[in-house]
Task: inverse folding
């Protein structure tokens, strides 16, 4: 039994397992071999899935593609939740989204990068929609320090003001923080990722994980703000 | 002064930030000297996340969980492809189950025939039985047996050696999810969550509160798909055993 692809290739079922065959010479079907699916890259599997015109062929291709990525998605989701049951549900949702959008994959990037964009957005959105985690996030570190940071100017144009603020914040982070502190700070305050999840996402091996970096970043930024205020006072005098 | 939302906005993607494809290329080439990347904390964080996704190996004690989730995904593969059929651990679909039995040509006649035979045998047995029901002398005086509608908790119960990693209970008929509550001895809530399973991993932050000798209470409520309570377990208690002190040392300094 063979399943057809729109490109003319066929996926055949043989006692040895699924194999790819060419339709160009139907009288002598060239069976590539039972290991053909394993020989295909993720990108090839995804493209052939989009081209397949019958459900059986699609099933074989999608099953193989997803199986290759179970562990990757499981590890990623375990970074965001602290028990395997919740991570399994999160993984299922990521795969469901991938399944629903797979035909939009254009192979212009690696399949894993495409899958990352789905997993990243889904897990971050899931975190944000969880109000309990959001309230925990508020309690993780004191937030008074950024109230000390002055706004970026008094221009009446909001857009200009926002750009000015963004530039100032970026400048402050680059001038003050080390590479890991910048990443932790950005994920925590820019993406609302809880510190324990950041510890796992970035694979931080120190004892207190991301919390140590955020405390250190906060201290450095507070010192910088104090210096700037002192300098401004000096200038006024 | 800056509020949190302004800070958040300042840290989100800008029009000149790198796309995922550009980050992918940077990751593959190993180049770190891209002019934008060098000065953009947001793109640096994105690149770190992409690197983590691409190259991550299981963290300590994570391998078993990854294997379990992978096997769950294999089991849920059909659900992934038909997401409207439900979420989480599935209960066998009664329609497909019945159609499988009645759809089989060999079983199509066997099931009704067996049912007819059962009805006939039961009718004969009732008609032949003329004996009065027995009255037991101890009726009403023996220990009461309750056919209770309650969820049975399995573990942990009583004194345990270590802070348990998991709570387990028996499945309750028709329950589609369970509400689990972990409480202090005065019933102050420590943790509450819902699950589709009959076991639940306790987060490390909650386990950390299970100090030796401190009683912890827990209770499970079975809910149907609309969230209606089907049954509630008794409140069970467990505590982590205190480490025994060396009697020869005389006293234990805390």
Result:
């Amino acid at each position: 039994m063979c399943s057809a692809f729109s490109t003319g290739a066929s996926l055949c079922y043989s006692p040895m397992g699924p194999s790819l065959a060419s339709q160009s010479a139907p009288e002598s079907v060239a069976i590539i071999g039972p290991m053909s699916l394993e020989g295909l890259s993720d990108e090839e599997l995804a493209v052939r899935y989009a081209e397949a015109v019958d459900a059986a062929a699609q099933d074989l291709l999608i099953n193989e593609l997803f199986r290759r990525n179970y562990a990757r998605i499981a590890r990623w989701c375990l970074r965001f939740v602290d028990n395997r049951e919740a991570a399994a549900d999160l993984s299922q949702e990521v795969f469901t989204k991938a399944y629903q959008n797979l035909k939009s994959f254009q192979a212009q990037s690696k399949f894993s990068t495409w899958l990352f964009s789905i997993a990243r957005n889904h897990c971050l959105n899931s975190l944000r929609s969880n109000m309990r985690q959001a309230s925990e996030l508020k309690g993780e570190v004191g937030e008074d320090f950024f109230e000390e940071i002055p706004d970026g100017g008094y221009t009446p144009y909001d857009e200009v003001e926002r750009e000015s603020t963004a530039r100032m914040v970026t400048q402050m982070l680059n001038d003050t923080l080390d590479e890991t502190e910048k990443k932790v700070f950005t994920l925590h305050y820019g993406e609302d990722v809880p510190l324990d999840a950041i510890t796992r996402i970035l694979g931080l091996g120190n004892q207190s994980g991301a919390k140590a970096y955020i405390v250190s970043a906060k201290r450095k930024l507070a010192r910088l703000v104090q210096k700037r205020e002192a300098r401004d006072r000096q200038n006024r005098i | 002064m800056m509020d949190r939302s302004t800070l958040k906005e300042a840290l989100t993607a800008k029009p000149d930030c790198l796309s995922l494809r550009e980050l992918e290329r940077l990751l593959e080439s190993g180049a770190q000297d891209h002019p934008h990347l060098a000065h953009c904390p947001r793109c640096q964080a994105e690149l770190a996340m992409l690197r983590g996704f691409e190259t991550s190996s299981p963290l300590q004690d994570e391998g078993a969980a990854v294997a379990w989730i992978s096997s769950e995904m294999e089991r849920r593969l059909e659900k992934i492809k038909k997401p409207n059929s439900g979420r989480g651990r599935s209960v066998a679909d009664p329609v497909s189950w019945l159609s499988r039995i009645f759809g089989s040509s060999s079983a199509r006649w066997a099931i009704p025939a067996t049912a007819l035979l059962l009805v006939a045998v039961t009718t004969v047995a009732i008609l032949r039985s003329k004996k009065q029901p027995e009255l037991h002398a101890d009726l009403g005086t023996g220990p009461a047996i309750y056919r209770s509608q309650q969820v049975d908790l399995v573990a942990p119960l009583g004194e345990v050696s270590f802070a348990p990693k998991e709570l387990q209970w028996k499945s309750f008929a028709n329950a589609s999810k369970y509400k689990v509550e972990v409480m202090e001895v005065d019933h102050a809530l420590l943790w509450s969550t819902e699950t589709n399973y009959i076991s639940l991993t306790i987060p490390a932050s909650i386990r950390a509160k299970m100090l030796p000798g401190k009683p912890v209470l827990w209770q499970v409520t079975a809910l149907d798909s609309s969230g209606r309570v089907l049954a509630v377990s008794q409140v069970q208690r467990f505590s982590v055993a205190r480490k025994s002190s060396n009697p020869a040392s005389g006293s234990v300094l805390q």
Summary: The CA atoms of residues 43 and 145 of chain B lie 66 Å apart. Confidence is low (pLDDT under 50) at residues 87-105, 133-147, 245-254 of chain B. Chain B touches chain A through 58 residues (CB under 8 Å).
